[in-house]
Design brief:
Elements: H1 24-41, H2 43-54, H3 58-86, H4 88-108, H5 112-139, H6 146-175, H7 177-207, H8 225-257, H9 262-290, H10 292-309, H11 316-328, H12 335-343, H13 350-378, H14 380-402
Helix pairs in contact: 1-6, 1-7, 2-6, 2-7, 3-4, 3-5, 3-13, 4-5, 4-7, 5-6, 5-13, 6-7, 6-9, 8-11, 8-12, 8-13, 8-14, 9-10, 9-11, 10-11, 10-12, 10-14, 13-14
């Protein structure tokens, strides 16, 4: 594979606003998004109490997740276009306003209808803010360090989400589930203040046009659609592994097939997430230094083994190892957008970010239900093998298509 030399050919039409890999703006950006993800991550641990408080059944409570997912899905492309026309700062403020409004409405909502509206509003806010975050990582700083920066950002996201599950759960246990949303709203408000005080100049600079520079690999040949589609297949595979594998297969197999209590299952998955967070920076360095396609394929191979092995485990230790392998594959999450930034002739701009998120969110919507149906109809083992088969397909496409050095015009 020869994706590393492609860096010399991947020149975006938008010059990176900052030449340094790490700066104060990136630090504040990571903290702000950690707080935003803290605000969004409080919902899952509160769900059982929400069911009791609103008198919901299992069938209707699933609508809350659907409202969030569908709202974010339909927001992705408009969010990308808005960043191109209005600038990322305006879009980020709008997204945080939606997150805060939806979270406060969640804390008050006395009925299913209003809770659905609240979750949809949070979904819109999530779609707006995520597009800005991807643009910030991809278009600031030197191109050679994009994966490292992206993985450091992911550490902030994981940290905020994990902390919210703990603190939000503690608040709910002491004061009721609505207090969990109040804690979440406070974190989102803090992120909004941080954005206004510290991120304005960097985001304005990010949205400013720069002199166009032709990309030798695509300036005359147009968009390399084979490579772009291969990258979207990799994006889809990672999202399916997250939503269908980690979000559905792991908890169902651990809870149903192995009979693990919720606290034990939580500790096993928390340990796997901690290992993932610990290796994010080394994986990012390896991708930027040794070649992004090489590291992407290596991550897929690890994920493949984990997906196939989970349904074969019969003990907590075996399940923990297989779950960790599946989760470790997600350390390559930021590689596909970096590859898009390298290979798109127009660079990674708003519409590209919106389409990238659209592919991810499409997988988020269809994967949990599909994996659940497969488990119910064909069992855990075949489901694991089919997920592994999707990973194999992504590998077989990535090696010949993305491993080639883009042709200079």
């Amino acid at each position: 594979m020869a994706d590393k030399p492609a860096l010399a050919h991947a020149v975006s039409t938008t010059a990176a606003p900052a030449a340094r890999t790490w700066d104060a703006a990136f630090l504040w950006f990571t903290v702000a998004y950690g707080l935003l993800n803290f605000g969004q991550g409080v919902f899952p641990p509160l769900l059982p109490q929400i069911m009791d408080g609103l008198g919901l059944q299992f069938a209707t409570v699933g609508l809350l997740g659907s409202a969030f997912g569908l709202a974010r899905f339909v927001t992705d492309l408009p969010a990308g276009l808005m960043t191109e026309r209005q600038g990322p700062l305006v879009v980020l403020h709008a997204g945080i306003a939606c997150l805060l409004g939806g979270t406060l409405l969640s804390a008050w909502a006395p009925s299913l209808a209003l809770m659905l509206l609240a979750r949809a509003l949070v979904g819109v806010g999530s779609g707006l803010t995520i597009v800005v975050s991807i643009l910030f990582v991809m278009r600031r700083g030197p191109a050679a360090s994009r994966t490292r920066r992206g993985n450091v950002y992911e550490i902030g996201v994981i940290g905020g989400t994990g902390l919210s599950a703990w603190l939000g759960g503690q608040a709910a246990a002491q004061l009721g589930w609505r207090s969990g949303f109040v804690v979440a709203a406070a974190a989102i408000a803090a992120a909004w203040g941080l954005t206004a005080l510290r991120l304005g100049p960097a985001l304005r600079e990010l949205g400013a046009p720069a002199p166009a520079r032709p990309a030798p690999s695509a300036a005359r040949g147009g968009t390399p659609w084979g490579a772009v589609l291969a990258i979207y297949l990799a994006t889809f595979t990672l999202a399916v592994s997250w939503a269908g594998g980690i979000g559905t297969l792991l908890p169902l197999y651990g809870g149903r097939a192995l009979g693990l209590p919720a606290d034990v299952l939580g500790r096993v998955l928390s340990a796997a997430y901690a290992i993932e967070a610990a290796v994010l920076v080394p994986v990012g360095w390896a991708a930027d230094t040794l070649g992004r396609v090489r590291v992407l394929v290596a991550g897929f191979l690890v994920m493949l083994v984990g997906a196939a092995a989970v349904p074969l485990t019969a003990s907590i230790a075996g399940f923990g190892v297989a779950a960790t392998l599946l989760i470790l594959g997600l350390t390559t999450w930021m590689v596909p957008p970096v590859l898009l930034a390298e290979r798109l002739p127009g660079g990674f701009r708003g519409p590209a970010a919106g389409l990238y998120r659209l592919v991810s969110d499409f997988a988020y919507i269809i994967a949990p239900g599909s994996v659940g149906w497969l488990i119910g109809r064909h069992g855990f083992r075949l489901t694991g093998l089919l997920m592994a088969g999707l990973v194999v397909a992504a590998i077989l496409v990535a090696i010949p298509v993305l491993g080639r050095r883009p042709r200079a015009a």
